[in-house]
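Subject: for your reference before the review

Hello V.,

The reviewers asked for a structural picture of the protein, and I figured it would be easier to keep everything in one thread rather than splitting it across files. Below is the amino acid sequence we used in the manuscript, unchanged from the supplementary table.
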Amino acid sequence: MSERMRMDAYYFAFGTTGVEALDKVLSAVACAGKAHHHTEDWQEETGAWEPHTGRSPVDWIFNAASEAAATLAAEKARADRLEADCAAMRTVFARSVAAFRNGGGLGHIAAEMARALERGEGDAGKRLLEEHVAALAAKDAEIAALRQRVEEAKHILAHETREDCCTRQALDGPVYCEKCQAMNALDGEP
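And here is what came back from the structure prediction:
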């Protein structure tokens, strides 16, 4: 609260609420009470009393109340936007979880979050979503690399155990993939 806001009138005083816009209304009433003992005189031109604006105590009170109303309306609009953003983010996360549960994996979650960003859903959470998309993409790449290693390990195991591996029969004998050809060469096989 501003030091300039008077909260003491002539016969009464207000405590502060901690909300500057409301404290300014109370201060305007206190200043009006200090300037004129009777409310019937509050319409008389008195001039401004810092930080209040207007020519009379009624103006001070009305202007302070109007400012408070505008502040509260702006805060309500901000809260409404945040609520809408949260609802949009809940929808995005619900879609992502559904994609994951349907076997889509982390890549599908990242894709769903990326689509949500493109649609502009959850503007307040955009940075958070971008971070999650990046983290999920990194995890998805890690999982893909692990899957590749598992496939390679299966391939090597199949070759070592002489299972069917990756051969296909051609007229002149089996045809092996490049990995099996390299391993055969190391083993001294054709």
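For the response letter, the relevant points are probably these. The radius of gyration is 37 Å. Strands lie at 168-170, 173-175.

Happy to draft the paragraph if you're swamped.

O.
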